[in-house]
Amino acid sequence: MSTATETSTHTHPEPGSRNDREIVDAKVIVTCPGRNFVTLKITTRSGVYGLGDATLNGRELAVASYLQDHVVPNLIGRDAGRIEDMWQFLHRGAYWRRGPVTMSAIAAVDVALWDILGKMANLPVYQLLGGRSREGALVYGHANGRDIAEASDAVGKFIEQGFLAVRAQCGVPGVKKAYGVSNAKGYEPAESELPLETVWNTPRYLEVVPQLFEQLRKDHGNHVELLHDVHHRLTPIEAARLARDLEPYRLFWLEDATPAENQKSFELIRKHSVTALAVGEVFNSIWDCKHLIENQLIDYIRTTIVHGGGITHVRRLADFAALHSVRTGFHGATDLSPVTMGAALHFDTWVPNFGIQEYMFHTDETDEVFPHDYVLRAGRLHVGDTPGIGVDIDEKLAAKYPYAPKQLPVARLEDGSMWDW
Ligand code: GCO
Ligand code: MG
């Protein structure tokens, strides 16, 4: 064993030293086992590697190029243990800050470094964050149906499987392809190479949603937690009306009731209703939700690891939210890979102001490409104790599923005007 006087810290060969943690390779892996995922694999001199998810649904190759062309050359030779400094370097150093592409790329690096640190310390990441605050993370599943009866049956199936919380969406009479409704086994919005054009009708939607939740409470009682995603379709005053109309059915939350770029619009919804509000799956930084959080205009913040700059930034966001009684409710649709789900679950296991975690089943092919140690038991997801984030990638298998271009749909009003999908 060498001593500090014999070798400089730059070339120190002993385990855990800077040299051991030197990044020697960083590889961007694009695979499509049922849907597209972008994964960053960072390898250190010691051979320990870490994974980070960089998937941005419908714009995957933009992040792959950001990483490959602009970030990877900066990683080689750096110390994988300087997680905070790396975050600051990539955020400040690019000059061009924030935005989904940049923040997803930074997140991939950040999570890969936390994974490496965990593996080197022989500890699961939740332990590095400060340890367990709970045994399992409450999750909600996605139930949907072409009409109210079908949606209610679907909710019943989730309850039978042990789910304690279920998001419910149903078809809107006169609307051909309502958000969240699918006749396939799992709801998967990015269906076609070019965006599917859907038509939207707000009055019909505002009529059917309270009827749906009235029926769900009749059929399933008051104890199951029910959630609903408006998916940015309403104006602030319409959102206020829906939130008020849903009050009798005591939703766990009403999500993305109106687009949140205009954060002040949530004041209007709050003024008219006590329905809990969730926002933020499309946010990328603390600055996107600062006004919403510090004015207590929302109850749950949805920004998760992959689109919010990784564990390092989302931890800052969650701490800020805790000061204002806002809890986490991380985005967890199928376009977030098991790598994000693993990292999010370590976070959920630790974060004091945890609320809920969204959880949709990935396809068997995706689960095979990304073996992981988290398990669902009685409505909660449990992380394993594998060092790091507990998710791996089978690169040979990943190579069998080449990238397949797919985009999210768009929505138009009946007169042809573009609307928010
Ligand atoms: C959700 C989301 C998703 C998004 C999808 C976009 O709450 O789960 O709204 O269904 O539409 O993640 O890529
Ligand atoms: Mg949503």
From TrEMBL:
Residues 9-22 have a biased composition (Basic and acidic residues). It comes from the Bacteria. Residues 148-276 form the Mandelate racemase/muconate lactonizing enzyme C-terminal domain. InterPro entries: D-mannonate_dehydratase-like, DgoD-like, Enolase-like_C_sf, Enolase-like_N, Enolase_C-like, Mandel_Rmase/mucon_lact_enz_CS, Mandelate_racemase_C, Mandelate_racemase_N_dom. Residues 1-22 are annotated as: Disordered. SUPFAM superfamilies: Enolase C-terminal domain-like, Enolase N-terminal domain-like. This is Bifunctional D-altronate/D-mannonate dehydratase.
